[in-house]
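Re: weekly structure request thread

Next one in the queue (256 aa):
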Amino acid sequence: MIEWMRRALPPSGGFFYHYLALRFSRSLWQNFCQDVSRWLEAWNPSSAELIIFGSSAGYSLPKIFLNRFTRVIVVEPDPLARMLLKRRFPKAKFEFEVDRSLLAPLPKDFVGSSSKAAVEKLSRFLSKYPNAAVLFANVLGQLPHEFPHLSDEVFSSHLIAIRSSVKGREWASYHDILSTWTRPKSLSAFNLPGGAFDLDEFIRSHLTPPTTHGVRIEVTDHQTHALSAGEPTQCSWWELAPGRFHLIGFLCAKPT
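Done, posted below.
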């Protein structure tokens, strides 16, 4: 079963993600969902409107949070996710935007171009909702898998540009920092220090060493550390499937 999941897990979203939610959202995902709920409660945006990027079917979003808004603009291209979201939150005031390119660093067929035009498109979209808070719901860490031709430098600069586009708003993001098939030493929430991210040091400090000599720990870096802009990041472990762990970072800001 575990080996089948290793091969079948998609880079991001898709039908198999909904299958995993059906299987594990009430068991393996519970601690993570509780961490998301507590974090959103602490963020507590004052706006009556909310834009959500990457909601999927809202498996990690609490009803009490979504129902407080008079308008929720959801950017979600997956039609199955939109249908399930409406069924799961019948009282929420949803409006849908299906343009999957709003967070895209570059068009896939335009390798080497600047992300400036993409960020300008995002800014124009946001300007239609000047009073809305913005939530990036576990989506930004999936972008490197959707645009594998991008260098780390280009992707980092794009994340910084996305953060700049929501400056002056109430905004928040929870996102993949890394993922691994190696069990963490502890599943408790913790803070990742600000500054440069040393992946090797993180592996030594937080992941269980292999019992077999010479076996390397495999970790996927989701390249989102630049989004923290040097700030400490609150973190939580999410066991997506049995033995598959994602380190999720939480960031939020209110206008100054």
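The CA atoms of residues 44 and 240 lie 26 Å apart. The chain has a mean pLDDT of 87.
Next request, please.
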